[in-house]
Amino acid sequence: MSALVGVIMGSKSDWPTMKNAVNILKKLGVSHEVKVISAHRTPDLMFNYASSALERGLKVIIAGAGGAAHLPGMVAAKTIVPVLGVPIQSCALSGQDSLLSIAQMPSGIPVGTLAIGESGAKNAGILAAQIIANYDDTIKTKILTFRTQQTQEILDHPNPSIK
Ligand code: RP5
């Protein structure tokens, strides 16, 4: 099955964060592909990936980047496939640089910006699945089950001192 979601990141060093997006896509049964594509180090690859995304059938692109995090915005500039940006928690500024780089897009080229780090990556995966669930009933059912289990887990274990 061809990928519906493209998960890209600026460096291999982003993988410990971005694997959280991939893990939830796997759990929700969403077909996906994973690649390192750097806005700075492989700009031509980024250009080609973004400009071919729509015709290749991608429905959502999740792009993680840290520091001067141009990847999500530059990819969004070359495609109308919705781009979800994940700010990587950088060492120097704890990811605030990444967050602001991704969130502060000039008008006309939107990037849906998630939280810094692992929560943002996981939520990007869930959000991508929810977008696809608009037309895919199998994925919709899996998301509803995930939500129910997440709620039930808390209801079943209300006392945090007991495992
Ligand atoms: C960005 O620069 C990447 O997204 C990464 O978060 C950051 C640092 O990359 P490395 O120097 O670890 O490859 O492009």
Write the layout of secondary structure elements.
Layout: E1 5-9, H1 15-27, E2 32-36, H2 43-56, E3 60-65, H3 71-77, E4 83-87, H4 96-103, E5 112-113, H5 118-133, H6 137-156
Bound molecules: 5-O-phosphono-beta-D-ribofuranose.
Features:
6 helices, 14% strand, binds 5-O-phosphono-beta-D-ribofuranose, alpha/beta, 5-stranded parallel β-sheet, 163 residues, Rossmann fold
The count of helical stretches stands at 6
Residues in β-strands, percent: 5-15%
**CATH architecture title:** 3-Layer(aba) Sandwich
Domain count, please report it.
Answer: 1
Shape: globular
- The helical percent reads 40-55%
Structural class of the helices, strands and pairings?
A: alpha/beta
Report how far the terminal alpha carbons are from each other: 40 Å
Rounded to an integer in angstroms, the radius of gyration calculated over CA atoms is 16 Å
Low-pLDDT parts are: none
Structure ligands: 5-O-phosphono-beta-D-ribofuranose
Kindly report the average pLDDT value: 97
What is the C-level CATH assignment? Alpha Beta
Note the run of SSEs as H and E. EHEHEHEHEHH
Characterise this structure.
The chain is an alpha/beta fold. The protein has a single domain, classed as Rossmann fold (3-Layer(aba) Sandwich), CATH 3.40.50. It has six helices and five strands, in the order βαβαβαβαβαα. It has a five-stranded parallel β-sheet, sandwiched between helices. β4, α4 (96-103) and β5 (112-113) form a beta-alpha-beta unit. α2 packs across α3. The relative contact order is 0.17. The model has no long low-confidence stretch (mean pLDDT 97). 5-O-phosphono-beta-D-ribofuranose binds next to loops. 5-O-phosphono-beta-D-ribofuranose binds at residues 9-11, 13-14, 38, 40, 65-67, 88.
